[in-house]
Amino acid sequence: MPAGDDFLRATLPALDLVHNLARRMVPSRADAEDLVQETDLRAWQAWTAGRPLRRVEPWLATICLNLGRDRARRAAPRLEVVAEALDDLADATDVEAEAAARRPALRRVEEVVTSRSDGRIDRPSGKSWLAWAAPQRGSDKRPPDPEWAIR
Hints:
The chain is mostly helical. It contains seven helices and no strands. It starts with a helix and ends in an 18-residue tail after the last helix.
C-alpha cells in the first residue's frame, strides 16, 4: 500500500478537529483553510520522514496550534525604536542634575537617622520621606527640626 493512502486513512478522520481549531485561531474562513492546508503539508512532510505515530489526532492538533501561534506572532505589531531617538532621549535626561537635586533631602534623612541613638524615626502621616526632608520651594534652607521627628 502506498504511503499516501496510509497517510489519508490516518489523517482524514482528524480533519474536522484540525479545521475547527483553525477556525477558532484565525479571523477568516480563508485563513482557516490555509492553516488546515499548511497543517496537512507539515504532517505529510513528517509522515514521509518516517516518524512513527501512535495517535494522529493530538499530533495534527499540535501541528495546527503551533502553526496558528506562529502566524499570530508574525502578524502582531512590533514596536520599532530608532536608535537616534534613544540617543536624543538619553541626552535630554540630565541624570546628574536630578541626583544633585535629591542630595539635600537624602542628607537630611541621613542626619535624622544618625542623630537618634535607637535609630527610630517618625514622620508625619501622609508624607513621603523625600517630601518631608526636601527643602521648601524657593528656599535653600532646610525645614526646621520638628519636635515630632525625633523622640
